[in-house]
Amino acid sequence: MCGIVGYIGSNNVKEVLLDGLKELEYRGYDSAGISVLQDESFSVYKAVGKLKNLQHKAEDFKPEGFAVGIGHTRWATHGKPTELNAHPHLGEYSYVVHNGIIENYQELKKELTAKGVKFLSQTDTEVIVHLFEQNLNSIEDAFEAFKLTLSQLQGAYAILLVTKSEPDTIFFAKEGSPMIIGTDALEQKFFASSDTPLIGHAKDVIYLHDGEFGFVTPDAIALFDSCHEAVRPQFSALPESKLSAQKEGFRFFMEKEIYEQTEVIADTMLGRIQDNAIAFDELDPSLFEGINEVKFCACGTSYHSALASTYLFERHAKIRTSVEIASEFRYKEPLMTTDTLFVVISQSGETADTLETLKMAKEAGLKTLVICNVDNSSMVRLADATILTRAGIEKGVASTKAFATQVTIFWMLSLYLAGERKTLSTENITKQIASLREIPASVAVNDDLHERLKRLSKRYLHGHGFFFIGRDVFYPLALEGALKLKEISYLHAEGYPSGEMKHGPIALADPELFTIALMPQHMLYDKTKSNVEELSARDSTICAISNLTFDKADDFIPIADRDHYMLEFFEMMVVLQLLSMEIAIRLGNDVDMPRNLAKSVTVE
Known about the structure:
By secondary structure, the protein is an alpha/beta fold. The protein has three domains: 3-247, Aminohydrolase, N-terminal nucleophile (Ntn) domain (Glutamine Phosphoribosylpyrophosphate, subunit 1, domain 1); 253-441, Rossmann fold, CATH 3.40.50; 445-586, Glucose-6-phosphate isomerase like protein, domain 1 (Rossmann fold, 3-Layer(aba) Sandwich), CATH 3.40.50.10490. The protein has 18 helices and 24 strands. The strands form four sheets. The chain has an eight-stranded antiparallel beta sheet, covered by helices on one side. Strand 7 (155-163) and strand 8 form a beta hairpin. Helix 8 (300-317) packs parallel to helix 12 (401-421).
């Protein structure tokens, strides 16, 4: 979730690039940089942290006349947020910016190093520019060298590359990461990761498709498809409102972020999933040496993802696992032993209660790991190790894609640890990895389903409350579903384990109690069905979510047939998010900014 910009023209290239990066800063603010090629000379500025630091560094840079420029604002994936790791990355006479992950960068880096290439950064991106120059030295045709370079890359990317050998050209390519080309009446050319930086500059835009690549000059746009066939560019008009462009046609940021989950989960898995194993390059295997227990600590939605992980860790890695609410853990005088791996989870990395528990664990001598979305956050700086979720910025206060990426990380991490501890067979791990690859498809929003939930939402605007119920890993999902509804609709909702209904809560059952029942085919279906039937017999209104028809349901929301319960989990997660959002919209609430809440809870 980085942001890139590019420009060819005679306006103030620095201001065009910096203004564009400002609109993209929500995509990453670990570091930023620009590179300008003018009069056969490069001017490059980089800075760590927010864009204002780069603006300050480049304040004396005042280019005039024709120039070619590229810029980048970084959400770190490989390497810490440092100036050396900031984009653009330099070869001998070329610069590159890149969004995405080059999965085979380690192999390419080893080959290039053996040929005498010296690397300055820890990033995967730097291999692109060195590989390009190696190819150009042999082929002596910049575009042919660029095409050959693309054929050698594996992974996802949006790439802009400039080189002194073609000083009026930007080479570009898109595979899995967004890229837009803009033009105006003055033959200026613009690039950006989204519409917003182009508004006010470009008149028409080309939305690139995966596999497309080419080059632009002041006079031309050359576009090719994945088969290297020339493509006639298809221009579209830009939206006029920047806010509406950021929302990309969605009514609320929350809605956009629910739809984005298919993309960010793919980003979360990039470079970490192999054919028969999970790889976390950011983890040293010694982190788990001498560890007999894993303790998770988090708040709110992150607590729910952590609770889900306890089922996966004990089931797959056969290691004792517990979870604590951070605000409670701080004051319970907990027993903390050094054979425990202490794991904290936070979208922002600044959650006050969770940060304090991390400090407690460090003081007690425990090994620590943070699952986080912000690479330069307080928790990341303090913990021994970090796994970034790569969810990108969440503007909606009610978390959606952060939860989805956290659970994805935990499923992968449980298999990683199972491989390290030899508690699952390679065959089992390989089978589950095949299921992991299906998550992006399972969370892709089906238009018919969304329309069904819009219509259904009008039936759930009254009553005295909601029960969300599920068993096993679906109990934490029930908790999360209830929290989503509470946060944005202001209706009372509770999550319960299905088997707990008869131990008290069923006393509330009547037609004005709405039960949202999570009934996965592959996880204790018959047990859950029996619990739901008990509620139905007490006249509770039942909304069942399952791929198996349930005749006692007043409302039934079908999901697709999946061969693993975690894929059912992810599809049900989307249903709960959309249903809560549609109920809140019908009630006239501001879905993105619910009352009394803040995005990052940085006070106790």
